[in-house]
Specification:
single chain; 260 residues; alpha/beta; 8-stranded parallel β-barrel; 9 strands; 39% helix; 17% strand
Length: 260
């Protein structure tokens, strides 16, 4: 049996090594500083140097894929109704910025294809798939050349299974709370990323992920520097958050303190 002090020393070394390695995913872009799911919100993330921008995919009445979180356009535009019931011509006219601040009055609901072509090489993409033709989305990712720079998530396992039937290469994120759930996610869905809460960032969860070649991502939406330090020092591979700028500040501070 290994001595507890030796185990503790090894863990401390691992935590130090991980202090500059957490990949940052910005939830709906820089949504504290710009209207969510817009070019402006993504550009701030790019300026900060984050790894991934999370976007929500929906489809118009005439089959055009857009980036919008809610089923309806009411909350984040000057329009009304379900995005699925509106034509692309109607959606393209909506103001998607003034609700947040008048200086963003020229922001529109982004069409997915030009957005992906624009962001390629600037940041990677996390697709939260809400409502779309899965095959069309998969084909678009390969056409744009983002297949190595993205991952997907679905709110229902049925949709995730359908995704895996259509494609076996693109990265998939699955939520899990226990090592047993990690095992099922990797075995049944070939999940490459496991998302969990900060309270479940444990050596057991990390080991369950890493033994199966998956990354552990922590969802943490609070603006809490102490929480950010726990994520970094706890050895998370990735973090999904709303305050990427502050997290990166904390990560740089810890890296500097450890001499990295």
């Amino acid at each position: 049996m290994k001595h507890p002090l030796l185990i503790g020393a090894a863990l401390a070394l691992a935590l130090c090594a991980s202090a500059s390695a957490v990949e940052v995913v910005c939830h709906r872009g820089a949504n504290e500083h710009a209207p969510e799911n817009t070019y402006a919100a993504a550009q701030l993330c790019i300026d900060w140097g984050v790894d991934y921008v999370e976007i929500d995919v929906r489809t118009s009445q005439d089959g055009v894929m857009y980036i919008l979180h809610d089923p309806s356009v009411d909350r984040t535009t000057d329009g009304h109704g379900l995005l699925r019931s509106l034509s692309s011509a109607e959606i393209d006219r909506l103001d998607a910025g003034s609700w947040f601040d008048p200086k963003f009055a020229n922001e529109r609901v982004p069409r997915l294809e030009p957005y992906l072509r624009w962001i390629k090489g600037r940041a990677k993409v996390y697709f939260d798939v809400k409502d779309c033709d899965l095959q069309a989305l998969i084909d678009l990712v390969y056409t744009v050349g983002l297949e190595r720079d993205c991952f997907f998530w679905f709110g229902a396992n049925k949709a995730a299974r359908r995704f895996r039937e259509l494609d076996q290469q693109l990265a998939l994120k699955v939520n899990a709370a226990t090592p047993e759930e990690v095992e099922r996610a990797v075995t049944e869905l070939q999940a490459g990323i496991i998302e969990t809460g900060l309270a479940r960032l444990t050596p057991e969860m990390l080991d369950a992920c890493h033994r199966r070649g998956a990354k552990l991502m922590v969802l943490f939406t609070e603006k809490d520097r102490a929480g950010f330090r726990r994520i970094i020092e706890g050895g998370a591979d990735m973090v999904n958050l709303d305050h990427g700028d502050v997290f990166l500040e904390v990560q740089r501070e810890l890296a500097g303190a450890s001499g990295n």
